[in-house]
Hints:
By secondary structure, the chain is an alpha/beta fold. The protein contains 20 helices and twelve strands. The strands form four sheets. The chain has a six-stranded parallel beta sheet, with helices on both faces. It has a two-stranded antiparallel sheet with strand order 1-2. Strand 1 and strand 2 form a beta hairpin. The protein is globular.
Amino acid sequence: MKLSQLLGTAFECRCGRTHRLPVRKFVYDSTGVEQLPGIVRDCTDLASSLRVAVVADARTWEVCGRRAFAALERAQFDAVEVIVADGEHGTPICDDATFGMLLARLRGTGPGIVVGVGSGVVNDLCKWTSFELGIPYVVVATAASMNGYAAANVAPTVGGVKILIEARPPVAVIAEPDVIAGAPQEMISAGFGDTIAKHQSNSDWWMNRLLLGEYHCDFCASIAGDLEPLYLTRPEGIRERDASAVGGLFAALFWSGVAMTLMGTSVPASGGEHLLSHTLDMIAMARGHEHDLHGRQVGVGTLLSAALYEEILRIEAPTLRPLPPAIDARFWGTGPVVEAVARQYEAKKDSLEAVQRYLMQQDGWNRLRNHLAGLPRSPQTVRDWLQRAGGATSPEAIGCSKEQLREAALHMHEIRKRFTVVDLAWMLGILPDSLDEIMQKWLSR
Ligand SMILES: [Zn+2]
Ligand SMILES: [Zn+2]
């Protein structure tokens, strides 16, 4: 069956679960914006006099928002322009304050549907507010920068802490190839970093199935794998904005978001490699400086995860170390951030103990090595992909110092309760012992 036939359906999966996919339409076509009014009508079953809020930021309004607005007006919709204000670093942010302002504006407008025009932040804000208002949402994507378009989750900053909110995915995702290929280079390379992360996150997921009996779905883990040759056989195509490479990447990002929606968690697309990016974001927020795009940081995290796996799988007979009993509270400071991190780490302790028990069994280590054989990509491969696609492979390339990256790498295992390769590296002493060597070897150019 073709993947597109799953849109808008519930289906019995060979994993034994029934998966639901509320996203009903995926359009990647030069007529995308022209198709918008018809899609809004089809996806909402509402009359043509409906009020539609077209939400964009100052830049995405010019890229696609104005055209989307005009197309809706031509089709007799009552379109209302809503521009999300920029934050202090020049672009909007997804936090509780911005959410509150947008929600008030939308409440005052009273739309029957929200059309978001943008990528990461605008998509998250529109998904979040439309969910809060209980109305459907359509996104007109402006960049292949991340995999959240078809996902149900929103990852805002609330009270200074990055949290995850379970909302609802859009009913349709629309994009035009020329708009996606014309987005800034750093956004396309960010999407590339976010999509190659799945080789590492899938390794974590598969590892947790063995060590912790975590539920695993082969279909969700391998969804859209046949798109990979389009952007991985010749990753230069991403840097050169080759139409088939960028189209393949955008589709891979869409389906990666779908996998998260089907699973109801971010597990198919996010593992230890994502922790580096989340930690860099949290540090930047606490210290009031900027950070790079999610996917560019995730690319560096993917390289680090690949290097950790390589070191781990090389070990013949492990000596397990006791894990740090608590988080490094001094690093996180005081207030809600340190409390949130401490709660996550505390919640991980049972898994850490269970993994240690597993690995201490006769043959436990060999079973794990065999189970993972051939799954994580080598750091050589990941670095090669990133460099050829124009992604970042060093701290400098994501705008942070070696010391900041080192600090993030040494604290990233504290922020999430789920077991990942980063925890395993701590158990085996690769962290902290070999971090400097790994950074020197893999993350210095
Ligand atoms: Zn399944
Ligand atoms: Zn991501």
